[in-house]
Amino acid sequence: MGALIALLDGAADEPIPALAHKTPLEAAEKPFIDRLASSGLVGYTGAYLHTHQFLADLLAEGGRVPRGVLEALALDIPLREGVAVYRLSPARVDGGVIELEYSLSEDVLRSLEASVDKTLPLISDLEPRIYFNGGRGVLVLGEAGFEPTSSSPFEGDPLSTIPKILQDFVKEIASRNGGLTVIPWGGGIFKNLRLEPRIRGLSILSNSPAAHGLAKILKLRSYGVSGLDDLLDRARGLLGEGAVLIHFERPDEESHRRSHAGKISAIEEADQVLEELYRETGCRILLVIDHGASSITGRHFRVETPFLYAEKPAEEASRRFHERASGEFVPAGRLLDLIPK
Fold first, then answer.
1. Which residues contact 111 (CB under 8 A, 6 or more apart)?
2. CA–CA separation, 225 vs 75, rounded Å?
3. d(CA 138, CA 190)
4. CATH class of the domain comprising 3-64+195-338
5. Is the model's pTM score more than 0.90?
6. pLDDT digit string (tens) for 138-147?
7. Helix, strand, coil abundance in the chain, percent, nearest 5
């Protein structure tokens, strides 16, 4: 049997008043996942804030990689050792509050990118290069002269964690766009890393640049997917060759849209995919959740997240899989040990 690692991105949530104070994971009709939880091992793993941090601990031995570096590697951006790299995310500045923007139109994004390019002379001493990719971007600084921080836009004031010259850059862009700007975060220095994969021969199905960047470092195969049919076709073939990680990104995306209904739908969709793949391949399944994502505020938050491992589902569900299910704590770096070699 092949091993399937299912990552439900941001599926953990907080109780939603409109759902009778249940979380979307509790409210979703997910009979297959609940049958897996009824026959297998259920527990909790560490409290993370971002997918790339969780994936690094889950898949790699030897340390973590800054988000900006992972995104640059995924885009095949040329990097020399010692350059500083940041992830850029569209955001809106309103007084002292900064909120990430997830649903900007293509016209607005093009206008924002043009404004960023026009503002680049403000940081010319840092030898900046900017690469945009579908609403997100990467900032490479050839001569930073400072140690970048791997800050998060979900904790504290993200502007306070970057040097003043970058703060001025962000504020100038906002002043030209009615508060709309880009936030540099997840910064780090690029250097040659020697990380080892915890599972050799693993294939990753994901549309996340962070996942693809980590796969490059670990010398693992990774593939983008264009829809459910493509996902199923690729997973079927790859499960015949070895272990596969499927990154279900939609729960997190619906959280950022503040749609608990959409998040429920995304979880139920993942349940159907897992059932179909098990029925066709008999794969063992490790289901993990990387971080909390509130469908009330649209923001990530730290919380211990549930996981399950099962080799086959129970005939009937005797327990439901959700944030408040009981179980033992297993660090993310030991979760793959649950899958027999």
1. 177
2. 16
3. 13
4. alpha beta
5. yes
6. 999 998 888 8
7. 40, 25, 40
